[in-house]
Design goal:
The protein has 14 helices and 17 strands. Strands 7, 8, 9, 10, 11, 12, 13, 14, 15, 16 and 17 form an eleven-stranded mixed sheet that branches. The protein has a six-stranded parallel sheet with strand order 3-2-1-4-5-6, with helices on both faces. It is of the alpha/beta class and 423 residues long. Helices cover 32% and strands 25% of the residues. The chain has two domains: 10-130, 3-Layer(aba) Sandwich (Rossmann fold); 145-295 and 336-423, Dihydrodipicolinate Reductase, domain 2 (2-Layer Sandwich). It has helices spanning 3-6, 19-29, 61-65, 80-92, 102-119, 135-141, 157-169, 173-182, 191-194, 197-211, 230-238, 301-315, 378-382, 406-410; strands at 10-15, 36-42, 57-58, 72-75, 96-99, 123-124, 148-154, 221-222, 241-251, 257-267, 279-286, 290-297, 339-346, 359-365, 370-377, 393-397, 417-420. The chain binds L-homoserine.
Length: 423
């Protein structure tokens, strides 16, 4: 459906009236220039009190999906299966769709791309990655695939909030997570945030727009912040690092893609170091432009609603993702055949088989923990789970992936170093 050519008002059927849906409702009331109005809102629980006229609400999805006067569906539910059904049905009926549903988009993107092409209806999801930061549209429109060396960033606001509160204020993990939930940053199931699943979903989406690869989030190596020890954060600070959950994507020499989400030691001279609380930051490195940095609020009602609003506004000029970087045969593959530099934090040096490392550069022990830094092949991490066991945490170093090719690994380490802290 061409909204622009039909010169119609955007008549919206909204699914979900939580933190983001409620914020969008308020914002649309204050943006008359957009010529958009919400006709119906589908919710799950009709008994909950809401700050909007009761006549607006229904619990019947068909009342929206079957309504031919509704030309735009905004999907903001927290139910990934329901979201899939809503998006697929709406697209196949020629309705434009705007969603913030990262897990649904990440899991079904090839099918959604096919539906968009078959029925000519656009699906926009800028709100699905980094909320207020327009990272998808920039990757899609501005950056040429060949020149894009790497994209890495803090893409989950809740974990960044938790880590900031632990690192700067000494807050406990559980208190900080509760605050993130109360502020409306966390997912309905916060396990998605703290296990890194939400960041992996976002990374999978970013990979499509950065490199044209449609990988499933499960193909991306990821872990969250649940295994981090309070001492890890303090150790990082002693060394001049902050620990952040970082999504990494980079192009390897063989044309394949490196992609992973891991807690990461971020040095003070990185732009990501200053990204605190629910803010997100994405660093893009391309051959000619060198480094660029996107920064903004990555979670919360209004920041997310701002991206939804921007997508609605883009429908006015018939904007749609062209997916120009997609390879017809899906040829861009995520590789497990590269090395990264990590630090393993553990209770004792014997807890970790040293043969897991291609090279060990440093051992450090203090009264609380032992830290082994060195180079590990990603495929070895992907094939094992020793590093996910309780009492062990793995923290990557931020440096670019590609410098740890086989040559660097083979090079003899001349700085093996042992250090014991008194405290
Ligand atoms: N739970 C998500 C986050 C919401 O904390 O980043 C925004 O996608």
């Amino acid at each position: 459906m061409s909204i622009q050519n039909s010169n119609k008002e955007l008549i919206i059927g909204l699914f979900g009236f939580g933190v983001v849906g409620g914020s969008l409702y308020k914002v649309l009331k204050d943006t008359p220039g957009l010529n958009a109005r919400i006709k119906k809102v589908c919710i799950r629980n009709a008994d909950k009190e809401r700050d909007a006229p009761a006549a607006l609400f229904t619990t019947d999805a068909a009342a929206i999906l079957d309504d031919e006067s509704i030309n735009v569906i905004v999907e903001l539910t927290s139910d990934a299966d329901a979201a899939y059904h809503i998006i697929a049905t709406a697209l196949s009926r020629g309705k434009a769709v705007v969603t913030a549903g990262k897990s649904t988009v990440a899991a079904h993107l090839p099918e959604f791309i096919a539906l968009q092409r078959q029925y000519g209806a656009p699906l926009l999801y800028e709100a699905a990655c980094c909320a207020s930061i327009p990272v998808i549209r920039n990757l899609e429109e501005y950056y040429d695939n060949d020149l894009l060396r790497c994209v890495r960033g803090i893409v989950n606001g809740s974990t960044n909030y938790v880590l900031t509160r632990m690192s700067r204020d000494g807050a406990s993990f559980s208190d900080a997570l509760q605050e993130a939930q109360q502020a409306g940053f966390a997912e309905a199931d916060p396990a998605l945030d703290i296990t890194g699943a939400d960041a992996a979903n976002k990374l999978a989406i970013l990979l499509t727009h950065a490199y044209g690869s449609t990988v499933q989030p499960g193909q991306v190596l990821y872990t969250g912040i649940t295994n981090l020890h309070t001492a890890d954060v303090a150790y990082g600070r002693q060394k001049g690092y902050d620990v952040k959950l970082v999504a990494h994507a980079g192009k390897l020499d063989d044309g394949r893609i490196a992609a992973f989400v891991l807690p990461t030691f971020v040095p003070q001279d990185s732009r990501l170091y200053g990204v605190a609380n629910e803010y997100n930051g994405v660093e893009i490195e391309s051959s000619l432009a060198d480094r660029q940095f996107f920064y903004g609020k990555g979670a919360g009602g209004f920041p997310t609603a701002s991206a939804v609003l921007s997508d609605l506004s883009a429908l006015r000029y018939d904007y749609r993702y062209e997916y120009r970087k997609l390879q017809p045969e899906g040829a861009v593959h995520v590789s497990a055949d590269y090395y990264i530099r990590v630090c393993i934090s553990c209770n004792g040096l014997l807890q970790v088989r040293h043969s897991e490392f291609a090279r060990i550069d440093e051992w450090v022990s203090n009264k609380q923990r032992c830290y082994i830094s060195g180079i590990i092949q990603i495929s070895r991490l992907a094939e094992s789970d020793w590093w996910r066991q309780e009492g062990i945490s793995l923290i990557a170093y931020l440096e670019c992936i590609e410098q740890y090719g086989p040559e660097a690994v083979k090079a003899e380490s001349d700085w093996i170093h042992e250090e014991v802290y008194a405290d």
